[in-house]
Design goal:
By secondary structure, the protein is mainly α. It is built from 12 helices and no strands. The chain is elongated.
Length: 300
């Protein structure tokens, strides 16, 4: 009886493995793509668990790269600029991406979170290094550093040959150049981050010149003008030190339509940064602004 039970259990496990293989086919990356059809079909969590956590970041960004997202992170910059299909610029909030593409971005992020929660980088999965090696062997230019310059049509095609100082400068400018106008030059007195956010429309370009954390302060500054009472310690401390801030009596109706438009735009850029998995580090941070406010310096 025990032997029969063991045999049945073995058969069930084998059948389960076969079913899993049928549902989640092994990855078939090619010379130019990690997942060639990630814009036309829905990815599954099962197939994504075939990859390392590092590779998932490339898969997620491959979807965005199809619409011309200009990368600021060196490893992504090098990888996608080596692709002949890639053309940086004109991302326009990903409006050119299909609904399937955005769904797949969310699925990849869900698996990344699951790996993080389980404390694993899925080291036994397919790693980006082996994908790059395969793409190179097939003439697909896996990484422009393997060739000293880009074989693609993205911006900054000779990044690998540039002086690091110039390279980093270009990387920092990337998202701002892509989205247009630079941040206005402000003298950060002790009063405001953006002094006129209540009387003029903000732009995507200027907002992308701040870190993700700073955007929260910019958004809350608009609410604080009308007495919004903060519950978070850091906002309580920051706005509580402003001579213009008087907590209490807040109502949504106190904000003008222009102010709500600015709030919505800031939240939009925050969502974009979250979708791209970036804190926009290297741009103007709230800690720098606070220092400028204390010293009366200006932001260049």
């Amino acid at each position: 009886m025990k032997r029969l039970f063991a045999l049945c259990l073995t058969l069930l496990l084998l059948m389960g493995a076969a079913c899993a293989e049928a549902v989640y086919p092994y990855a078939e990356y090619d010379a130019f793509w990690i997942i060639p059809d990630s814009d036309t079909r829905l990815l599954t969590e099962g197939e994504l668990w075939q990859y390392t956590q590092e590779t998932l970041a490339y898969i997620r960004n491959e979807i965005l790269a199809r619409a011309g997202y200009a990368f600021e992170t060196v490893k992504f910059y090098n990888y996608f600029n080596a692709k002949p299909w890639y053309a940086a610029g004109g991302f326009n909030n990903g409006q050119g991406l299909s609904r399937a593409s955005w769904t797949n971005v969310d699925t990849v992020k869900a698996v990344e979170r699951a790996m993080k929660n389980q404390g694993t980088d899925n080291a036994g999965g397919i790693d980006i290094a082996q994908i790059i090696a395969y793409q190179n062997s097939q003439g697909g230019y896996g990484d422009q550093l393997d060739y000293g310059n880009s074989r693609g049509v993205g911006a900054g095609s000779t990044l690998g040959d540039r002086d690091p100082a110039y390279r980093d400068q270009d990387m920092r400018r990337g998202p701002v150049v892509m989205r247009g106008t630079p941040r206005p030059r402000y003298c950060y007195t002790s009063r405001y981050i953006i002094p006129d956010s209540d009387v003029r429309p903000l732009t995507e370009g200027e907002l992308w010149s701040y870190t993700r954390e700073t955007l929260r302060y910019i958004r809350n500054e608009i609410l604080a003008r009308h007495g919004y009472t903060f519950k978070t310690d850091k906002f309580l401390s920051y706005f509580g030190g402003k001579d213009w801030y008087a907590p209490g009596g807040y109502s949504d109706s106190l904000l003008s339509s222009l102010e709500w438009t600015n709030v919505d735009l800031v939240k939009q850029i925050e969502r974009e940064m979250d979708d791209l998995g970036t804190a926009n580090e290297g741009f103007l941070d709230i800690s720098t602004i606070i220092h400028m406010q204390e010293t009366g310096q200006c932001a260049e």
